[in-house]
Protein: Acetoacetate metabolism regulatory protein AtoC
Amino acid sequence: MKRRVLVVDDEANVRKALSTTLGKVGYDIKEAASGDEALMQVESFRPEVVLLDLRMPVMDGMETLRRMKQLDGNHSRVVMMTAYGSASDVMEAMRLGAFDYIQKPFDLAAVKQVVANAVQHPENEEEPLPGHDSGDEGQERSGLIGLSPAMQNVYKLVGRVSMSKANVLIQGESGTGKELIARAIHANSPRASQPLIPVNCGAIPENLLESELFGYERGAFTGAVGRKQGMFELADGGTLFLDEVGELSPALQVKLLRVLQDRKLIRLGGVEPISIDVRVIAATNRNLQERIRQELFREDLYYRLNVVPIHMPPLRERKEDIPLLIRHFLAKYSREAGKEGLYLSQATMDLLLGYHWPGNVRQLENTIERAVILASGPSILPEHVRGHLQEVGTADQPAPVPGIRYEGRTMREILQEVEREAIARALRKERGNKLQTAKRLGISRRALLYKIEMYGLKISEEEQV
Structure:
């Protein structure tokens, strides 16, 4: 029996190309030129997969998707198609129950693969989130900008995970926009009307962080003159965003784990457990799995937080988004400075596109803000940005180490070679004694064994201990 596919697009040539391609590989194809026609075809044809264009006159693809999901007995997997996809469009489509989201112009082979994935997917897997309308929130309003494949994948994950209650762990380098992702998840969730409480775990001293998170009773410690609710209680019904969660001390990790397990907390100085309904979104620029191996982060807490992982790509891996980001930041800061109409010279754009951006989007934003202030004419020239890039680039380079080659290598490669050499030297000094080597390096024996294996370090038989 042929699998049924409905192609919905107001452009006849797009419908024909898709119908011909999918028909040749054995699908039963029907076409619809509008949202209204698509809804009628869904009820009569009962397609298993719908390829649905986002931008159509009268009833657009998003409204058509909403109505399709409301039809009784409709289990079609909907794949959205558009040439104009923004972050909010992708997240809204996934939140409403779309199976996938592809951009025009698309590779027909990729379309065949998406359709094949959809027909093999279990029914009822993509259920829309009820009772929430995100409104017309564009990229600039959400703060998420980028059309690269890497960012499209992030938007899809945000749309899907916003429908659930699951904890989320956002990992990525500093400046990639992890907090923006946390805010987008909250804004697209059923908790959107409740508070989102951000906590920077790395910026609050450990002796204060416990009381900030869990609250305290009067007399709990010197200066506790009254009861205070902690961040968990303030976020009740909403979302708690734990930024830099990798910086938590071992003692606080234990207490956080208990709260996540029991959904209850006890204030400092208190005895009564308090029930809470809080979704936790955590973020870190640390490699938590490495910290687990070094016995600096609890493995059980990691799995509690990492129910849905989201990786934020560094800017150097999505350079096609740099012009969009520049346009956004340039409009923002030129408006604030009363210099509207500023533009980048081609030489400046080439310079920014060729830079490696160790500070990611945050560094790019800072660079554009500074350039707007320095510009005295209608255009931003290379001299308005070059000095800042050199300053940051110099600060990011490690101090020279004898025997280490720097030219043409990434920071990660340089640091790994430095680490490998430090471990090799320590092993030689301790004549292969792993326990003493670990103590010398200030890491656990388990972490040392992992590093020895990772770097392929060899120890002579007479030196092994």
Summary: Confidence is low (pLDDT under 50) at residues 124-141, 393-401, 461-465. The first strand starts at residue 4 and ends at 8.
